[in-house]
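Reopening this ticket.

The earlier resolution said the output was attached, but the attachment link was broken on my side. Pasting everything inline this time so it's all in one place.
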Amino acid sequence: MGSTSMETNKLEMYEFGPCEDAFQIGFLIGQRFSKQIRSRLSNDLILQNQLLPFAQFSNSQPFIHALSETNQSKFPHYWNELKGIAEGSGVPFLNILLLNFRKEILPFIPKTERNPKEDEISADCSSILVVNNSMAVAAHNEDANVALVGHTYLVKVTLSSGTSFTAYTYAGELPSCAFGFNSHGVAFTLNSVPPCEEEIVAGAIGRNFVSRDLLEANSIEDALARIYSSAASVGHSYNLIDTRARRILNVETASRNRISVHEIGETPFFHANMYLHLQVKQAQDENSLSRQTRASSLPKESKNDLLALLGDRNAEKYPIYMTGPLLYTLCTAVIDLDEKTLTIIQGNPKEKQQSYVFRLS
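Inline output:
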């Protein structure tokens, strides 16, 4: 797949609300983006070849049931939002459920049932963060399986409380497993991290539910508290951004409520898909190691440098900016705390072709 043909369609945005409840949020999103959701379901090889077959095995059902019960109990509103997405888009709820729990389910699928090529696409997202006298920036490549190309959108939702959030969203999933911000001055971007299988707790809280919860945080401290209380199944890396106080935190998490918080300062901080400060047994990921090594050698003195870093394609096998065949950089989000903007760039960020510029609170 050539990069040019995959970058032609501008990201669609849907703004709505105030909403009465979570089901209505999901229903309206599902209804509006039914075409994208249905297309993703039919084109996502991980869903078709791994998740759906696994869900049909009788010995898998207790595991999926436990995962469902735990998350429905902890986050009943977001569970209803998932139901709304399924009903609004007219697709089976099981498919929506599996998409949203893919990171929590995939480690438990027997390796003999996996497609080896699909195993290689777990590494996704690169972030570069800095807060110094000259700039305060969080810049983030949103990388994903090529099946996601053309299957993402933006939503701006106003809740009944008056709070609003804007979120980059994968078709069929809760907003947002990628990045977003709200009217309380809280923003975030996300990076996956690959713990060893022994570090994963089966049937615990799903990462999509945690990040959905962050969209309603009323402060960076509240966002941290929501992460601390999540009891997640699989680890994650959160870049929490206080758009009013010029603060950025990198928060690495693992199962059993293990968390490490790193305050971003003058030294630019690059994060791919590996733990950097939380002591956790993790899978050795050649893709992340390659990006981490390459980023360490590139200049980071200006915002333009950061964009050039995220657009770097120097490494033939594992470049920072990805154009397939398995992984693809869907877009780049640039949060500038001095300009108080979030800019979304589709295409290589070195070219600075802006698709959206949002004012931050």
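Reporter confirms the inline version is readable. The chain has two domains: 20-118, 122-359. Residues 1-8, 113-121 have pLDDT under 50 and may be disordered.
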